[in-house]
Amino acid sequence: MMQSMTGFGKATCELPDKSVTIEIKSLNSKQLDIYARLPNIYKEKELELRNLVSKYLVRGKVEFTITYEITDIASSAKINIPLVKEYYQQLKALNNELDGDSKNSLLQIIMRFPDALVAEKEELSEAEWNKLSKKIAEALEGINSFRIQEGAALERDITGRIQKILDLLNDLAQFEAERIDRIRDKINDSLKVNFDQDKYDENRFEQELIYYLEKIDITEEKVRLQNHCSFFQEVLKEKEPVGKKLSFIAQEIGREINTIGSKANHSDIQRLVVMMKDELEKIKEQLMNVL
């Protein structure tokens, strides 16, 4: 099943003292490129996170972000009592010296001072990590579902364009007989204009003409193009990632189309070749985002 490399997954983990949000975004890339933005408390698990992401997402530029919001302030910060007392004594003495009357507001002022509140050192417990890991896996499953959905749309578009190339290839047949006759007549007319009939060997001329027509024959290119397109359609149905393989096949398809164009020497065939090239370029653009 074809998958896109574009996707988004999100999950929220509710913990006793905080709410953790996991967001994962991915774009197309030649290999797996993970950029992780993690709070300090989860830095120690970065390698484990990268291994987990690589199991779910084979390829792509992945931005992995974890943020959290404290929901229990009491458990996250403590009053620095000795420092607050020192602040209070100094401000009280200053207030008395200046004959101030704002003793009741001193504590409110002090609590805004630096280090009046001390954040407790965060430690990651095994229970918290186990719960968070499940939510990370949920977000990764979400991004995979997104990729599969996008991949299905890509597959429909690419399949239609490959079929269009095959249809255009079949349309070539109606011009081939006329093309050969036109080339033969053109050479004959040129020969008659420039040489007397008794000055050249007609049998030798026919041999040379056959040799020339064989060199511009496009039968082999048509057969190979048909085979490449059929192989492309088969690979589309494979279960493992097929993006790179399809890109290689698309290059081979392009070579055969170009060779047909260079040998054509016929305006209607050239027009069909241009249309095939247009479809192939659109396929290549889509393949850049296929896993």
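[next item in queue]
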Amino acid sequence: MSEQEVVLITGVSSGIGQSTARLLAQRGFTVFGTSRKPSGIDAIPGVEVLPLDVRLDESVDACLEAVLKQAERLDIVINNAGYELGGAIEETTLEEVKAQFETNFYGVVRMIKAVLPIMRRQGKGQIINISSLAGLVPLPFLGVYSASKFALEGYTEGLRHEVKPFNIQVSLVEPGFIKTNLPGNRQYVADQISEYNPWRQRAFEAMGQYEEKASEPTLVAECVLHLIKTKSPRLRYKVGKDATSTTRLRRFLPESLFERGTRSHFRLDAKE
């Protein structure tokens, strides 16, 4: 049996997942990453990439079986797999909403349901769910994505209370804008309503400007490493100045003033 702590990270094809997998491998952890198509990504030194589709029970079971067969235990699970669905809420079909939740929320639920019996038998474990600033402050035209992250926030906080007696630690990492492939891989609703076009366009243009100035995903990876090494990790870890400042403003500003600021940031009331 390996003496190194064993980590499983979902969604290591790029961005936060890949940066975290690389950093933890460099720091001596035994790291397994996952991707729906492992053959399509470049090798990550020190990381074994397994196939996993978090939407399928049988895929989750097969992935965990492979990890346990090689490492004989699982100490840390980092739920990172997810995608953004862009579009106005009115133009988003129920099927598109369900698909967003199937990956971003139910995929995490599926993973945790499968790993908790392992961790309880071991008498310890750690679960880190990668949320988003959008799980605290919803973004216009990413309303369904934001809703999936809001659901993850509530689920994770409840889980933390329930599994604490089993010496299982649970935390959320909440990045603001980060330079990843998430925006580039953003999926959009199939049937757009033209009346929303001016506001949708301005909102995504504003997001693009924020993303250009965003921090590198290594900032999130370093936060995760710090979290793992902390003796008593907190529930929430915000990453990036925008995540910290925005949540502080929401806490202290009057609701109407914060709403006005949000609309200004995304140019929702611009005349042109």
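[queue empty]
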